[in-house]
Amino acid sequence: MGHKTEEQLLQIDYAPPKRDWTDPSVDFEARKGTWSYPGKAKNLQYMGFPNPRDWSPTDADWQLPEGWEKIIHDGFKERLEKYRSLKVFMDICVRCGACADKCHFYIGSGDPKNMPVLRAELLRSIYRQDFTTTGKLLGALGGSRKLTPEVLKEWFYYFFQCTECRRCSVFCPYGIDTAEITMLARELLNLVGLNINWVMEPVANCHRTGNHLGIEPHTFKDNIDFLMDELADITGVRCEPSINRKGAEILFVIPSADYFADPGIYTFMGYMLLFKYLDLDITLSAYASEGGNFGLFTSHDTIKKLNYKVYHEAKRLGVKWLIGGECGHMWRVLHQYMNTMNGPVDFLEVPKSPITGTVFDNARSAKIIHICEFTADLIKNGKLKLDPSRNDHRRVTFHDSCNPARAMGLFEEPRYVLKAACNHFFEMPENTIREQTFCCAGGAGLGNDENMEMRLRGGLPRGSAVRYVRDKHGVNTLSCVCAIDRATLSGLCEYWAPEVGVSGVHELLGNALVMPGENERPTDLRGTPIAAREGADHA
Amino acid sequence: MRIVLALVAVGVLAGIAWAGGQSPAMQAFLAIVAPYVAIAVFVVGIGARVIGWARSAVPFRIPTTCGQERSLSFIRFSPLDNPSSSLGAVGRMALEVLTFRSLFRNTRAELKPGGRLVYSSDKWLWAGALLFHYSFLAVFLRHYRFFVEPVPKVIAVLQGLDGFFQVGVPVFFLTSFGLIAGLGYLLARRLVDARMRYLSLPADYFPLFLLLGIALTGIGMRHLWKVDIVRVKELAIGLVNFHPAVPQGVGPLFYVHLFLVSALLAYFPFSKLVHMAGVFLSPTRNLANNNRAVRHLNPWNPPIVGHTYAEWEEEFHDKMKAAGLPLDRE
Amino acid sequence: MPAPRYPRAQSSRRTPEPGLRALLAVLADHRERLVESWLDAAMASYPAEAQGFFLKSTDPFRNPVGATIAGAIGALADGFLAGADPASLRGPLDDIVRIRAVQGLGPAAALRFVFELKQVVRTVLAEAGCSEKLAQDGVFLESWVDALGLASFELYAAARERIWEIRNRDVTARTYSLLKRAGAVEEDDDSCGRPVTGRRPVHVKGGREE
Lengths: 539, 330, 210
Hints:
Chain B is mainly alpha-helical and 330 residues long. Chain B has 13 helices and 2 strands. Chain C is 61% helix and 3% strand. Chain C is built from 8 helices and 2 strands; from the N terminus they run H-H-H-H-H-H-H-H-E-E. In chain C, helix 2 packs across helix 4 (64-81) and helix 2 (31-43) runs antiparallel to helix 6 (106-127).
């Protein structure tokens, strides 16, 4: 009994306080590592966004503009008329909870407001108050809340804590899509100058230079030359991709991380080897030097604005059709938005592979195909000489990136390429792949480093599945078709499944592709000895 | 608190009807005025909701794809989980509405000793929801027998099937049991699971209690405190033919039943129950995933022009020239 | 719930006493209760709405937090009951600590569960009517928990440090080829023993040495 006082000391306040969800308060100071820095004034100014200023979420006063309540109310009203999705999703949720444990952030954190139903309810409670009679009459009893600065802060916290991965939407009986709700909530937040710099800076850069990093055209060219030198050192094959070449048959659009970031550059090398092998009449563009589109994480108008360059450049160069590289959210835009926003493109032709003659009827209107569609067709028609044993040091699994998975349905094409290029391929558990794939937790502008703790939390479900195949099958390579994945999954694996690296699909294809006139290739594109694994096994 | 509130609300409604059912003036209100008003509110309300949704634009084609896209001829695609045509989208909606396809997706993996993975289905919510909705539909259709004379063959057959096991006199319907069980399950999971309790609103409990009230009074009248069916049928047919008369001697329980049904109908358009109609308008489910094949039109497509090539070249002209990149303007 | 990931806890060959201690002998009969209370104590740091979810589902992918912690607590408890050297239990301990290090709990709340074992043991013994065993073997319990606690400090600090390493490396990786072209990164050529595919260790010149 003498222990009693000591125990009492230990019993204090570790359990989180019990609060009703309608309480909007968020302690930003105590939650560092789970939110992103706000958009810098210069980026907002450049894009002509409202309320540019320097501020921090830890400030008591967020310097909202005059009349912000009306701005939000009117903006909400306008979007209810413009988007049936929003109106229907606001009205029909029955709060059945089927989505609750489908969000990687909820799974990793246990924060109940990360349940998709509640994330939506943060917006819905204002919708009820402002736009429904019963909500007005019943007030809090009907689940309504008044719009206060605290509610806006809560929106900022939780709508920049959703990666727009759409996993919850798969399980919802009405298809309520939190990505859609988050996109529109972020549009509202943008109206009063609440956004994050990791989105706003790429948006501003992309608008000015054509890509997220703000790479100017001469640097673009220098960097590609540099990568081609490295590639020639490794393979003995010199690729000379053309840039801004008029009259090429095909324009190739890729995420900028593919020519700048590790490990995206190896995927880029893979593309270049493939095009060289096929002697494809294809060009890159230093103007349309980014397929990724952070407008998707900002507003629909910004998507359209940034994506303008793709068809504009296709027309200027006089190409016939387009291929898009490995990038997740880029393909959300290219597949579900571009044709509607920036089309019609009657100046282009229906994509037809010059190698196999296959007509890509599924892209007959938008005139753009995914590189995995292109390559799978080549392999099927026996047009590529592959030596998959050159990937024998890789034991490979495939991570379905959210957008190609749930906003397109690109499941088999990349697998088809991988299985031809690698001898050792293993699937992760079935409730973590394809339409049920788990997010990298760094999409939708959240892949910045100040948000690292939240990313790792949300990355746990993916990490657990990777760890499972690592332990069971010795998997050491997580392949994917997304630039954000390549950036964020590297860190995720380092934490949750150490010793698993991340590769693009075309990096592995590039390893396996037997180029005419190539060197003996003792290493893969990364310079890792191909025999390394066997060596390690024998040792 | 939220639960109590909902329960009290239903209790008050039932109380009004119970008391009113014993006063002739109120009987007329409960038996004639309330049902007519409720039906009018229901029809107009739901109509207004659907028109309201339909008036909002569908600017983009945003289906959530849950299967392989249609692309290359040698890759099998999922016509229902990722439809490439409107017909496929209709099929997808049908699966969703009739079988609750999305709820059925719930699977659970379990890691057995030795690292073996075993998948089992986690379909309680799916089963509970299906049980409730189909039972409710059957009960609803069965009631048709009160409104027409002679009773159509279809309804008689349905009723026969429903009472297949011939338990009790009068026969106890399977769907009465299904309805109660379904509602009980849906209520219990909201009460037992802390997470569900956290996110549930009075508006989630209220319809459950209301429906339970309706079901229990209905079963009560059939099996325990029997009501003069002939009188009830006279009222029902009268209501349909716009010649209603207050029935004599049907007892207060019937008024409770009828008034709760009226309340349900009137409440319907203002509540989450509109999911019944809204599900058909969900853009992530009712559209084909073919935006690269068929251009979807945005009725308010804003005339936005991005940073043009000419503007871009203007800014980087000299650097591009030095780097030997092709230029439009020398 | 057995944790397939861990080898069955073996009775440490280094246990100084021959045979099990009186304390452990009693507790071994109440293993389920011990594991359950210890798990409850560990879960108390999460919101009530999440506890149910974490505790209910054993799916390691749908509920990795709950499944991992439950599995690891089971392994730690088995290790304790077997009188194993706490140092041999770093695997399961790391699995828990690594998760809790990114959950915004802070070190005290994140590692509290280790020390809760003392109270759990007292409660289980009290329920079994054997509180007197504590008088005999209390020192063992104290020192075992202390050793596990010290190990957990190390693992927690390592996890937090790893987060910073990842942040650093992310920054470099983002513009890797630019930096490399500018001669601003040095590659670590010492790839012996390094994973063939994991992230290459790079140092930014003039940056903080790792």
